[in-house]
Structure formats: C-alpha cells, structure tokens
C-alpha cells in the first residue's frame, strides 16, 4: 500500500493506475494506532474517519472503491442492563457514512450487522448501493414480533411497515449475486411469502445460503419456489424434509446447481442422497454433514440395490462428514486393521456404501474426497483413494493434536483425521510388506519365474528380465522403483517386468505407494478375488480445510466464525481477564523460546505482521504496558459491566472517550517509541485471515 501511494505521487502517468489498485479493494485490518485514537479523541474507527474524509474530498477516488473490508471490534449489541449499546450504534453510523461515500461499492466485508426489523443507518446505506454484489442478513429477534407470536400463528407476525421496509431494501440490488440469511436460534422471522418475494426480485442471484429458520418460515414449499441458483447451502432448516429435497432436485429450478451443501438436515434415508446425486446432473461439489443421524438403506432396498448405489457423472469434490455407528463387524475390522471389501452379513454403513460406489465406478470425475469421520468401518474411504502424498498427511502443527486424537477419536476435526489417516497409511505399508514376503517365499518354492540373462552388443551392461511362463510382458518400472524383490543389487542395471500373478513391489516411500500397485492409469491389476470392480478411478484423500488453520467442524466455516460470537461474548462479559494475565506472563518471560509458548500464541505470532521490518531504533517498550494498551482500546462495554454510573449510557462524548486511554500514556519514553514505530500490527494474509462470504461456498 505504501509503495502504491509513493508511485501515484512519483509520475502523473502512473497516477491513475496506481490509484485504481490502491482504492479498488480497501482493507482495514487490525487495531487502530493508539496515538491516532488519542489525537482524534476516539475509542475506535479513526482510520475509517480519515478514509471518509479522503473519499468525500475526491469523488473520483470514491468512485474507484469496489470492495471494502473493515474490522469487527466485537461490540456487544446490548449492555449488561439490557439497554442498547451506544458504542455499537456509533460504529454503525461511522460505517454508514463511509458506505454512502462509495457510489460503486460491491461488497462490505469484515463486519456483519444484526437486523431486527428496525431502522439502522448501515442497512439503509447498503440498500442504496445499486452495484452491490453480496449481502448477509442476520435476522435477530424483535420484541413486537415475539409478543405477537404468543397470540397468533404465522403468517402475519410481521406488520405492514416491517414487510415494506424489508422488501424495499432489495429493490435496487439488481446485481446482487450472493445472499446469505441466518436466524440465530430460529428467533428471527422472515415469513414464507416474504422469502419468495425478495428472492425473485434479485435477477442476478447465483449463491444462496439459508440457515436456522423456523419450519413455519422456510419449508418444502419455500424450497420448491426458489429461483434458479448455482450454489445452495441449507443449514439446520427443520422445515425442509427429504421428500422436499428430492422434489426440488427433480424440478427445473435445480437444473443449474453446481454446488449443494447440506448441513445438519437430519437425512435418514440414503436413497435420498442417491436421488439427489442422480438428479443434479451439473453438480460438481457436494457437501453433507450431520452427526445426529446416519442415513441408511432399508433391508429391502439393500437387498435389491445394485452397485453403485451412489453415483454422479459430474462430481469432482465430495465432503462426506457423517457420524456412523460401529457394529460388531466394524469393530473387529478396526481391531484387525484390514480393509476388506467383501459383503458382510451386517448392514453396511453410509461410509461403506460410498466406498463401494467409488470402487464400482460411480464417480468417474471425482478428484477430491474429504472425509473427516472415516471411522466406520475404520479407514474404508481412505482405502479407495490414492495413496498418501510424498510428505504424508500431517501438517507441521498436527503434533500438538495428539491429545485430541486420543481423547476424541471420533471427532470431525481435520487435525485428528490427518493423524488417523497417517496411522492407517503406516498400517497398510506394514501389511503390504508382510504379504509381499509371504508371496515371495511361495514364488521361490514353486519356481514360477524363469530368469533370462541377456547382454547388450557392447557387453558392458547386463539386463535381467523377470518373465512369467504365461501371460504377456508388462511395462518396466522407474529407476527409483528398482529395488530388491529377493534379488541382490550390484553395479549392473536390473530391469524387472511385472506380470499378472506376480507379487506387488514395495513402495518408494513408507507413506507413498506406487500408483502402479493400485491399478491407476494404464497399469492392469492381477486378477484376484476382489469382486467385479478391479480397476476404478481413485480420488485424492483431501484433509485440508477451506480456510487455513481452521480444522474444526470438518474444515467448514460457520456462522459463529463469521459473526465472532465468542469474541462478542467475551467482550460483553469481560471473561478475557484470565487469558490476559496468562498471556502477559508468557510475554514477560524473556528466557522462554518460541517453542515453549502455547500453540495458539505461536500461531497468532506467526500469522501477524508486527512491523519489525519498519521498526526504528528506540527504547524497548514494556510488553505488559503494550498489551494493556490494546486491552483498553477494545470495546469499552467490557468494563461498563462493573461501573454503574452514567458512563455506560453515554454515546460518544469527549469526556467518555478520554476515559478509554491509559493515564500513563503521556510518558516521554513510551510516546517517543510509539512515534518511531510507524506500523500497526495486522494479521497476515488476505483480509487478515478473516472469514469471508466466499468461504461458505
């Protein structure tokens, strides 16, 4: 950013291009400079106010702004006495004034306001942006609507004014492509008719997310009335049934769907998933996650079903996170660590059905399979995927998750899944080595191979070919696969040819199997009793999250991460006092190294730019004072719970803003040091590694 600012002032020919890159995507990440806050007598939003003044002074710069990422100060909506928080309303007003200064704004990220069918300036400002492309509605509880619901049944809980305002907000969004609607705790109300009206008023809608709405608001009839979209995410919608999903998948409105995400929809019948995959011919990504119920076939369906039971000719990515219960047959399979694919007398689990479908060619285009709960049967999905990569499944920080692996072996954390996959890969290597040794001993006793020694014309190199007495000769292996099989190596170059019935060669790496062993590509497998499917397309077993560092919840991001629910709760209750003292104690210990710190602190340090590259010489600032400064500059409402004076009810006066600054900040040494430190610490990465709307799809 500083380089672009210097470039635009260097040459007039570069000014327009530099300003376009500088103002098209504005990111305000991290905390404000304490000196700037003190100078402007503000508790937060100093950079936003300076940006607003810049955009207001130059309309050409304001027209360049397309996307804007603003920080979320995690201000609670209400004070401990249940009154509205004036700091929250003040921050909304600052954001609204900045949004009104950007006529071509397409997206506002980083901060998501709550909407409870009352007027607020930020929502109105966003409704006037005609080029807006994405928006998020978090519909909170309204007292009047809750009181009205005690005396009457829906529809009709919203009055005419509330219906008109919510409908009017969508009138100018003709370019809106992504819309997300959430009702925390199913307390927010958007009735069925209002759903249909606003969704059909958006002609450019492509991505739609519906989460946690009551069954009276969003149900099967609402789902069938949705406009055609390319990506649909349904999360905890109890009004949507399995019959409604199958009817929607067969309707013309679902013909353009490229991605379908079903989270906690309580699907009980595996035939529902089979119909969804068969009906959505254009779908390339499919995600299903549920832990309360396991979908399965009935006994009649399982007896009459033909493999593959799950099939899709267009899918390239599957996220399969279903908690399957283990029966006695599965437990013995896990104890023996054998991945047998023979039919069992027990009813097959959902994981086993998916594995059998992959083995029988049900997903010819599948590239990646992510299964955080590959536990029933143990490792069944990993066994039908490509071998482990060269470096294995583990990431550098996964060694810290061994305690979670032993405490919660059935967790859907990807860190636990990577440890589990690594162990299963090692067990597979050991079993393969044992089977090869047994096969080689049998080969030597039965004399099945005839060695022919041929020499070249020069007589310098010897080539030993292993040929079967029946069957054609196969392609040679690569040089780094020319290892032993019972033949001692010398300076001569030995070339071995694999034939049908010959034992499998050992891998080149303990966790990297040879792809020829699994019949991938043009190599043909030996004909053994493995059922009708001996060669099939193997996907890659993917265990990486959508957002780096977020392994919980199967690697999927949710509304709690987007809204910062935990941070807001800590800010409201002041529960972070204990963690503050612990963190300052760790910072004061100068003898402790970087590896002695907790994992969360190491990750936070590694993911933040602390400004050392632009740090001038000066006296060392005490770490405890520096952290106390950051603590004071956060939401003032976390301290308002203990004070019962009128300070908590004041909005934004000069006297109240002075109280947010420490009394000893005017000391000469610390002030001079802060002036020489001309860089505010900010997280690394795009948008400071914050959760974005794109991460939901």
TrEMBL record:
It comes from the Eukaryota. Residues 570-604, 637-664 are annotated as: Disordered. Residues 571-581, 637-663 have a biased composition (Low complexity). Residues 584-604 have a biased composition (Basic and acidic residues). This is F-box domain-containing protein.
């Amino acid at each position: 950013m500083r380089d672009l600012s210097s470039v635009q002032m260097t040459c007039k020919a570069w000014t327009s291009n530099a300003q376009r890159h500088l103002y098209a995507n504005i990111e305000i990440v991290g905390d404000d400079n304490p000196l700037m806050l003190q100078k402007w007598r503000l508790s937060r939003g100093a950079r936003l106010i300076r940006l607003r003044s810049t955009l207001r002074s130059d309309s050409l710069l304001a027209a360049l702004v397309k996307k804007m990422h603003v920080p979320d100060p995690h201000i609670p909506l209400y004070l401990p006495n249940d009154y509205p928080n004036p700091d929250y309303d003040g921050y909304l007003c600052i954001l609204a004034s900045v949004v009104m200064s950007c006529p071509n704004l397409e997206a506002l990220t980083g901060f998501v306001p709550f909407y409870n069918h009352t007027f607020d300036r930020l929502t109105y400002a966003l409704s006037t942006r005609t080029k807006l492309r994405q928006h998020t509605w978090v519909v909170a509880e309204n007292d009047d609507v809750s009181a009205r619901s005690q005396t009457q049944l829906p529809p009709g809980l919203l009055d005419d004014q509330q219906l008109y305002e919510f409908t009017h907000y969508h009138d100018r969004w003709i370019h809106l492509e992504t819309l997300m609607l959430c009702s925390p705790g199913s307390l927010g109300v958007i009735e069925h008719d209002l759903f249909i009206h606003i969704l059909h008023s958006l002609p450019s809608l492509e991505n739609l997310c519906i989460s946690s709405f009551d069954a009276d608001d969003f149900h099967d009839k609402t789902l069938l009335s949705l406009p055609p979209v390319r990506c649909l995410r349904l999360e905890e919608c109890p009004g949507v049934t399995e019959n409604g999903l199958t009817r929607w998948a067969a309707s013309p409105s679902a013909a353009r769907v490229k991605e379908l995400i079903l989270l906690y929809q309580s699907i009980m019948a595996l035939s529902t998933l089979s119909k969804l995959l068969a009906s959505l011919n254009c779908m390339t990504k499919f995600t299903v996650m549920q832990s309360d119920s396991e979908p399965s076939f009935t006994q009649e369906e399982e007896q009459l079903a033909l493999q593959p039971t799950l099939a899709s000719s267009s899918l390239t990515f599957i996220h399969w996170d279903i908690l399957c219960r283990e029966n006695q047959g599965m437990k013995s399979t896990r104890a023996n660590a054998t991945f047998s694919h023979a039919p069992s007398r027990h009813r097959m689990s959902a994981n086993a059905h998916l594995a059998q479908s992959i083995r029988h060619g049900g997903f010819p285009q599948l590239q990646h399979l992510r299964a955080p709960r590959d536990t029933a049967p143990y490792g069944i999905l990993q066994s039908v995927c490509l071998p482990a990569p060269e470096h294995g499944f583990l990431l550098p920080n996964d060694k810290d998750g061994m305690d979670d692996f032993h405490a919660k072996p059935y967790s859907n954390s990807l860190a636990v899944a990577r440890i589990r996959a690594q162990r299963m890969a090692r067990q597979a290597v050991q079993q393969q080595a044992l089977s090869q040794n047994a096969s080689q001993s049998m080969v030597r006793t039965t004399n099945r191979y005839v060695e022919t020694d041929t020499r070249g014309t020069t007589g310098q190199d010897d080539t030993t070919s292993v040929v079967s007495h029946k069957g054609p000769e196969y392609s040679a292996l690569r040089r780094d696969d020319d290892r032993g099989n019972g033949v001692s190596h010398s300076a001569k170059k030995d070339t071995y040819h694999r034939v049908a019935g010959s034992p499998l060669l050992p891998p080149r790496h303990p966790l990297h199997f040879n792809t020829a062993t699994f019949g991938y590509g043009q190599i043909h497998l030996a004909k053994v009793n493995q059922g009708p499917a001996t060669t099939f397309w193997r996907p890659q077993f993917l265990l990486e999250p959508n957002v780096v560092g977020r392994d919980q919840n199967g690697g999927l991001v949710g509304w709690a991460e987007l809204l910062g629910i935990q941070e807001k709760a800590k800010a409201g209750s002041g529960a972070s006092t204990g963690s503050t003292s612990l963190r300052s104690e760790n910072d004061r210990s100068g003898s402790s190294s970087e590896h002695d710190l907790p994992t969360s602190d190491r990750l936070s340090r590694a993911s933040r730019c602390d400004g050392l590259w632009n740090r001038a010489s000066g006296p060392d600032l005490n770490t405890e004072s520096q952290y106390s400064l950051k603590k004071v500059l956060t939401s003032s409402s976390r301290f308002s719970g203990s004070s019962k004076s009128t300070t908590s009810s004041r909005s934004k006066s000069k006297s109240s803003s002075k109280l947010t600054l420490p009394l000893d900040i005017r000391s000469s040494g610390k002030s001079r040091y802060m002036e020489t430190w001309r860089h505010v610490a900010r997280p690394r990465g795009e948008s400071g590694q914050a959760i974005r709307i794109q991460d939901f799809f």
